[in-house]
Amino acid sequence: MGKKRFNDTPFSYHQEIELEISTLTNLGIGLGRVQVATPPENKNLSTVSHPKEPEGTEADLPRRSASEGGWVVMCAFALPGERVRARVFRNHKNYSEADLLAVLRPSPHRVAAPCVVFGRCGGCQYQNFTYEQQLVWKRQQVEELLKYMAGIEFPVAPVIGSPQQYGYRSKITPHFNPPRIHSHEPRDPSSASGAQPVEINETNFPIGFLRQGTRFDLVDVPRCEIATERINTRLTELRAETRERAAAGEFTRGGTLLLREASGEVTTEYDRVITETVGTLKLRFLARDFFQNNPFILPQFTSYVREQAAGTGARFLVDAYCGSGLFALSSATAFEAVAGVEISETSVAFARENATANGITNATFRAGDASRIFDGLRFSAEETVVVIDPPRKGCDEPFLNQLFQFGPRAVTYVSCDPATQMRDLKSFIAHGYKLTAVQPFDLFPQTRHLECVITLRKA
Question: Could you confirm whether 416 is annotated as catalytic?
Fold first, then answer.
């Protein structure tokens, strides 16, 4: 299939334009509007969408901008209040995308980014933004999602920031593709792999993260500024080891590396058991398993979840996506009994082990069938609060149906994607739950991501 022809309406390919950036999308992209001479026919300019994103990403643009006039142009790494020169690389049916060429009038909140690949790497969006303003815009993002996705105007608490804004991330997963090498030299029969040694470098074998705005192109990342210093030290070594293996012809396909720090040590082994300390708890789990990646804010984060859950007056707690027991065990002292449910049997085994190791006797864990999460639960629904921390895509319909059928007294919903959380919130409201608190946490400084905790009580 040939390459798709460029849609040259309303801008030609690589046409340079100037625009004022008025706001940020919840993907962390600057958004402005420009007047166009001949807008596309039969297009509703007030309807704005974004290129297809991973499942679960919704409401990519602040809807309040829909009433403003002009053609929407989105420009990554441009900040609100700035005037910029940008180069258009894609026209959609109702908006265009452009690369930032120059900042003609900078925002007073613009700062120099410490990362040498910032602006190319898609991992961070806000290194050029003061941290105080990052928190302001993340709070506004949650407010707009509440209003336009859930149809609710509710006071959102100021975002609780991370104690550490750089060097906080305890896990990274850099990627690589097969080396882009074309050699016509005969293979060396004495080589174990049969491959000729070749020169491998960052050009033909980048090891890093996706380039901003692409799905497959990688940016070589020799150092990640938001990762811990120990991870960066090990990253240098691992990159050299991986390139040596690539030069020997070991890789015929791409792959992903793992670097995870816990208890002052960095592992690159997916199946290694590691220990993370959260407050007074010591939790063991596999390096490849999901676990929050900002240990510096975790004590405050888990304490808030415990306080919100206990503040509902419930006697019992159910952690419905318990993993290795983070929320269940950190909340156990506030309840008569705690039950954790998880579909991964290995995670349940670690949760049980963690309860015993931490001397917690009122917590039980079981591997639950996804279709029967609450079966066998002996807690009275009227005296139970449920904590849920689903994947980025949010709760699926079968889970929500089971939850509403059980009908707990209250729910504390933790989410790494407020867009899918607000989508689910509509279902809670429809089933008689009332929103009582919205508290964002910045577990991911310098990026568009955040965690949001909402508390709901059954009316």
Answer: yes
